[in-house]
Amino acid sequence: MRARLTARTFIWLQGLAGLVGLALLLEIVPRIGIVSPDYLPPFSAIMVALFKEMMTAEFWTALSDTLEAWAIGLVISVVAGVVIGIAIGSSQLLRKLTHSTIEFLRPIPSVALIPLAVLLFGSQIQSTLVLVVYASFWPVLIQVLYGVQDVDPVARETARSYGLGAWAQIRYVTWPTTLPYLMTGIRLAAAVALILAITSEVAIDTQGLGKEISDTESGGAVPIMYAYVFVAGIIGVIVNLGARALERRVLAWHPSVRLDAAEAGA
Amino acid sequence: MKNLLPPLPRRVAVALALPVTLIAAWWITSADSQSFYFPPLQTILQTFGKLWFSPRGLSDVMPSLWRFSVGYLAAAFLGIVIGIPIGTSRNLRNVLEPVLEFLRAIPPPVLVPVLILFVGLGNEMKALVILFGCIWPVLLNTVAGVRALDEVLAETVRSYRIGGFARLWHFMLPGASPQIFTGLRQSLSIGIILMVISEMFAAKDGIGFVLVQYQRTFAIPEMWSGIIMLGIIGIVLSLIFRAIEAWLLGWYYGLRQSQRAG
Amino acid sequence: MDRAVKSMLEVKALRKVYDDASRTVEAIRDVSFSVGQGELVCIVGPSGAGKTTLLKCIAGLLAPTAGTVVVEGTPVIGPPPAMAVVFQEYGRSLFPWMTVHDNVALPLKQKKMTAERREELVRNALAAVDLKGVDTAYPWQLSGGMQQRVAIARAVAYEPHVLLMDEPFAAVDAQTRADLEDLIRVLWHRLRVTVLFVTHDIDESVYLGQRVLVMSHAPTVIMEDVAIDLPEERTQLETRSMARFGELRKHVYSQIQLAKQGWRPPFK
């Protein structure tokens, strides 16, 4: 007598099958020689290397270094994005004046700052922070600007007529409207921040997962390299899922007018 | 349709006000700068002109842009081609979604060492890195776009027995194109980043390579001019992208406007 | 009814059950009727009567659980070639990235014909629905009534033998609806096409149809097949004020009321 699978369980199983399929592919392809196992070790070898690495202190130091740079950079971007975003967004004049500058600076790739960061800070965490903050600031700022613009003018007028000062207006009118947008911005920024943190580690050799990857590559420790690549991916997935979960929770007790905007942020 | 925009000269003035002020401030404060790392803006701009409008300068920019174009366009093509069947089939989507989530979460720059293993340090490595990084936003957004195709329109297409290539070309692609363009836009910024990063490793030419060289040899004004050059490339590519998007998605802007007014 | 008239559409013992993970819904229990060539038959019923489900089964867009649909002697397993459907949501049924002209021409591109013939059909269809000068406009630039006309023109240009219409005028205003109703009668006369018209508007069904099939509440069966013996020439003003119109309307209305109260024909 088979229990009837619910639709949700079935979807979970399908997804699991996909992951297992990928692992199997990674196991078989090097073993039968389509690709040389020197370049792509079998999945099992990578997992063994991973577990061995996880016993070393070095692994956890690298992981925490990456996460530290990511977290600090993200917090700075979010705070700066919110403060500057609300300040600019609340004034039509400021918005118009800064529009061209923002559109101008936005597309500049953060990696353009790598040489400068290296000159100023070398391989310390500050270099990474420069890149992380520069890259993840913009998504937050743009979203906050959208949010402030979305404030209901009637609500604003009402607040003003009740004599609420600027600070109170922000707290009771601007902030609640902006919050869903901010969540989207944080989700986008979190992903970008992680990518840039690891990128700068690969490129500048600051301490962290990226450095381990580039070191192990040049040192020829290929399975360990892949183990770190795997970890980078897992961290990325956790950050993405976590950010999405956070966004959903905040939007849950929010009149979710902006749910579609959040989905559109992809 | 009301046209309440202020006259053009006024708009231009407002747009330029802050940038001009900032540039002027940079110029003035750095004018007699003795700082090694922050030379006068004047020097930087002079170097810029000398450097990038020379044959040598162009020979650094062109290979970068070429590799970028190859990687980006290949990623766009593959992302759309792979995304459409996944978006269409619910089962395929369920099976592949976790796999894709994982693969896209791998920061593309970490693939540079991996790819060096496979294909060495040449152009292929760089184009492949760009491809691996750019394909995910396009693919995932194509999937989302295909999923969101209007049901009534889908039924109309079926009822008129429009199938095969016609269905793809007249219905699925245009219908999903707004969402696809969102992905293409994200891929654009990622692609530029990867173009530079891949060249910062052992390379023979390219903007990233040149930038690293300047930094290593402490050629500071040149380095700054390189940074500005990268910024300009980013802006120009973004403008080109927007022009293409406006051309292809004109109907979409009109539709949204009429929906909002309606 | 004249049985000698060639049967264009036959629905036999149609049954549709929706069965998903959480529940089972019997939308249509047993529907059988036939439509002769060139007839205009209306289907009317309370909301929740499965009218749209029925239409989709006939159009080949939905597979029935049991029973058959036969169009021109051929069983329907997918959308049949000589059939065109006009949906209620005109805004979503037209391609927003194509002009009016291209929207009307698209279904024709798969039929084998010369470009000139196609252009002629498009031109005639747009003229037939009284749309002038909108060839190069986009659907979202037009009013609701005009958009629905474009959808009708597209169906007309396709030269179908059977025209299915699923509450096509439910989403337009009353004045436009009256104009469109008359347009349908004119087109029907001129093109001699067989029309199956689903509506929830009782007046509309009596005004338009030669017959009105009254549907029960889900699980749907046919309550009654009402013959509309109004004159062939109908106008909004005169026909609707005729005594016979009032009687038929009242009859259909009372059937619908019975349906809403859950009454069903015996043994169904």
Head-to-tail CA distance between termini of chain A: 42 Å
Number of domains of chain A: 1
CATH topology of chain A: MetI-like fold
CATH topology of the largest domain in chain C: Rossmann fold
State the order of secondary-structure elements of chain C, H for helix, E for strand: EEEHEEEHHHHEHEHEEHH
Q: Rough shape of chain A?
A: globular
Please write the CATH class name of the largest domain in chain C.
Alpha Beta
Q: Give the count of structural domains of chain C.
A: 2
Give the overall shape of chain C: globular
From the N-terminal CA to the C-terminal CA of chain C, the straight-line distance is 24 Å
Radius of gyration of chain A: 23 Å
Structural class of chain A: mainly alpha
Summary tags:
heterotrimer; A: 266 residues; mainly alpha; MetI-like fold; 0% strand; globular; C: 268 residues; alpha/beta; Rossmann fold; 2 domains; 9 helices; 10 strands; 25% strand
Describe this structure in words.
The complex is a heterotrimer of chains A (266), B (262) and C (268). Chain A has a single domain (42-264), classed as MetI-like fold (Orthogonal Bundle). In chain A, helix 3 (57-89) packs antiparallel against helix 8 (166-204). Helix content of chain A is 80%, strand content 0%. Chain A has 11 helices and no strands. Chain B has helices at residues 8-30, 41-52, 55-88, 90-105, 111-119, 123-147, 151-159, 164-200, 207-216, 220-248, 250-261. In chain B, helix 3 runs antiparallel to helix 4 and helix 3 (55-88) packs across helix 8 (164-200). The model of chain B has no long low-confidence stretch (mean pLDDT 86). Chain C is α/β, with parallel strands linked by helices and 268 residues long. Chain C has a 10-stranded mixed beta sheet with strand order 5-4-1-2-10-9-3-8-7-6, with helices on both faces. In chain C, strand 7 (162-166), helix 6 (174-191) and strand 8 form a beta-alpha-beta unit. In chain C, helix 4 (115-128) crosses helix 5 and helix 7 (202-208) packs across helix 9 (243-260). The model of chain C has no long low-confidence stretch (mean pLDDT 89). Chains A and B meet through helix 1, helix 4, helix 5, helix 8 and helix 9 of A and helix 1, helix 4, helix 5, helix 6 and helix 8 of B.
Topology readout:
The complex is a heterotrimer of chains A (266), B (262) and C (268).
Chain A: H1 7-31, H2 43-54, H3 57-89, H4 92-105, H5 114-121, H6 125-149, H7 153-161, H8 166-204, H9 209-219, H10 222-252, H11 259-264
Chain B: H1 8-30, H2 41-52, H3 55-88, H4 90-105, H5 111-119, H6 123-147, H7 151-159, H8 164-200, H9 207-216, H10 220-248, H11 250-261
Helix pairs in contact in B: 2-10, 3-4, 3-6, 3-8, 4-6, 5-6, 6-8, 8-9, 8-10, 9-10
Chain C: E1 7-19, E2 24-36, E3 40-44, H1 51-58, E4 66-71, E5 74-75, E6 83-86, H2 90-93, H3 100-105, H4 115-128, H5 144-157, E7 162-166, H6 174-191, E8 194-199, H7 202-208, E9 211-215, E10 220-227, H8 236-240, H9 243-260
Parallel strand pairs in C: 2-10, 3-8, 3-9, 6-7, 7-8
Antiparallel strand pairs in C: 1-2, 1-4, 4-5, 9-10
